[in-house]
Amino acid sequence: MEEFDTVDAEFDEETHVGYLTLNRPDALNALSDQLRRDIVEGLRWLESQNEDAEGIALRAVVVEGAEGNFCAGADITEFSEASPGESSERHHYQFVQEFPVPIIAKIRGYCLGGGLETAMACDFRFAHTDARLGLPEVDLGLIPGAGGVQYISRLANPSAAKEVAMTGDHLSAERAHELDIVNRVYDEDLDEATQGFAETLASKPPLAIQAIKDAANVSTQIGLDEGRSYDRRRFEPLLDTEDHQKGARAFAEDDYEPEFEGR
């Protein structure tokens, strides 16, 4: 395990899954500038596990908050020093979104404001039934400053984004799931389900997983024809990879179980 000031990072060599825990429990894991920096540094440390590996070691990441809350939002005590848009690590959201392996946000308790924006920058959101999600910035006379309205407009629709951001209400996990903000909702089996999903992703050919993540992200920025062309450009190089050869062999031979290495 690698410990930063406000984040703990751990890598499981056997499963190829990384874990990042936001660790400011006394502040409900609110986003201070230090926490924003540590999220980036923790992910960089996890990615560095690839440096001494043959192929790609890190295949998936699970992000959660310590002691029962994901993240209660921005630390408003720092607003007088710098706005969320000027924070030294404001772009941790972009870093999360563009990280080369899939990231799963495992959500318990409060997931509000910048915490929800952080979760929505992840590729997947698995929530416990006790989770409460929302964008309360309107009650401070503000708009969500890191893309909250944009994320919900893309995950659900603009009307849902207006409802969530204009009311500032806390959503139950079930309501967030209805709006497609959350992928799945669990009760006591949240840990097991998230772990199993992360290990499933980690077992897939990592170069293909990276290409799928990139293609999905690009799809929100370009038209369908451009998107098809982008997918084709990412498809063709994969035909020459060892992972593709192993996958094709497994398809043809029932008794062959491939181990993908990202080559």
Describe this structure in words.
With 263 residues, the chain is α/β, with parallel strands linked by helices. It folds into 2 domains: 2-202, Alpha-Beta Complex (2-enoyl-CoA Hydratase, Chain A, domain 1); 206-252, Lyase 2-enoyl-coa Hydratase, Chain  A, domain 2 (Orthogonal Bundle). Helix content is 40%, strand content 16%. It is built from 10 helices and 10 strands. The protein has helices spanning 33-47, 92-98, 114-121, 148-155, 158-167, 173-178, 190-202, 206-218, 224-238, 242-252, and strands at residues 2-3, 7-12, 17-22, 60-65, 103-107, 110-112, 124-128, 132-134, 171-172, 184-186. The strands form 2 sheets. Strands 1-2-3-4-5-7-10 form a 7-stranded mixed β-sheet, with helices on both faces. Helix 4 (148-155) packs antiparallel against helix 5 (158-167) and helix 8 (206-218) runs antiparallel to helix 9. The chain is globular. The two termini are 27 Å apart. This is Enoyl-CoA hydratase/isomerase family protein. It holds the Pfam family ECH_1. Residues 241-263 are annotated as: Disordered. Belongs to the enoyl-CoA hydratase/isomerase family. Residues 253-263 have a biased composition (Acidic residues).
